[in-house]
Amino acid sequence: MAVGQSVPLYVLVNKFDQQDRNSDDADQVRALISGTLMKGCITPQQIFPVSSMWGYLANRARHELANNGKLPAPEQQRWVEDFAHAALGRRWRHADLADLEHIRHAADQLWEDSLFAQPIQALLHAAYANASLYALRSAAHKLLNYAQQAREYLDFRAHGLNVACEQLRQNIHQVEESLQLLQLNQAQVSGEIKHEIELALTSANHFLRQQQDALNAQLAALFQDDSESLSEIRTRCETLLQTAQNTISRDFTLRFAELESTLCRVLTDVIRPIEQQVKMELSESGFRPGFHFPVFHGVVPHFNTRQLFSEVISRQEATDEQSTRLGVVRETFSRWLNQPDWGRGNEKSPTETVDYSVLQRALSAEVDLYCQQMAKVLAEQVDESVTAGMNTFFAEFASCLTELQTRLRESLALRQQNESVVRLMQQQLQQTVMTHGWIYTDAQLLRDDIQTLFTAERY
């Protein structure tokens, strides 16, 4: 998950007003999301079942009562009818809206039923009250990060003053060779990674074509039965398309997780000799560069079945083949005056017709378009992600080696000074390291104190 450990994460589960006696209660919903969906990454106490509709209606009603002293007429603003239905029940009457105290009490109860009070108190109020603590904790972590970097730099420079000049020259030369080897390996590994991508895309496209053929065959079999109603066909088509989409998405997730693992192994095998060589030659300095491997993100298009069904159902009017100019004028005026019966005479009323063959062709075209989009997304997203990730990986590793080489050259330049300058620099470094140790310890204590305050706020 792209959330830091110090960032509090909360989940709001909407539409809890649709719960019935067969639905899970609040505790069961929290346990399901915490244990199954979030894999234990969030505690049940950070999950809040809510009803945004009830919260909106309650707040809207309280706002109108506070500003205008009454609710608008339901005929003018339809939300009032929704509020009355939710707060007063299905048998509400217009006279009930005149009892302001009763309406105000009903709005407060509806707000309580929306369950929004608890997350607002936990999230907004707590965040506002602890804003200074959040800022202070962020500053403490930044200070620790800078202190860690400063300690590595000071330790390296202090050790560099105790290394012979010839040894420093040898280390600089070895780092230069490592940089050249890195560039050579980058050119070689690019071809291997490209080959792995081509194999993965070929396999994925083959699987995609199989799913496309199977789905079109299922749709064709579905439309052979003319006895089913449109609603039944709609439901079965949506089920087929959603199942196919889930199957494709799940398969691609597994395929490209394996591809990511393979590419990480390839990059690790290439970098490990260089890393081991650098560590072996500079183990006493304590310098250790960081390594970052590519991360792949999948983008999956979705079927839009509801819009598709709306488009293939055509509204047609059965009219005479020859329309007179007078009939057209009457029809125009009837639309303007909102009188559909004017000017129709013996014409038939509008009817909705569904051509199942058109619907089947449209669904097949949607499936084909979906598969084309998937193939295009795979070719673009995977290749771009891998290329960008690999370039970033090698650039960061080369930056580590370049920085290491720069520090070695700085140490060599100081080491070549006369002994008095070297001794003075050693004394200054010792004093700086001592001062830095105090700063680092204070930063750790500050971080621990802030964490203690956060823990106390929770209880």
TrEMBL record:
Q: Which keywords fit this entry according to its UniProt record?
A: Coiled coil
Query: Which spans are transmembrane here?
Result: none
Indicate whether Lipid metabolism appears among the record's keywords: no
Looking up InterPro entries in the UniProt record yields:
G_DYNAMIN_dom
Q: Which domain of life is it from?
A: Bacteria
- Name this polypeptide is given: Putative vimentin
| Ranges for domain Dynamin-type G | 1-119
Signal peptide (UniProt feature, chain positions)? none
Species of provenance: Escherichia coli
Q: Which residues form a coiled coil?
A: 158-185
Annotated Gene Ontology MF terms? GTP binding; ribosome binding
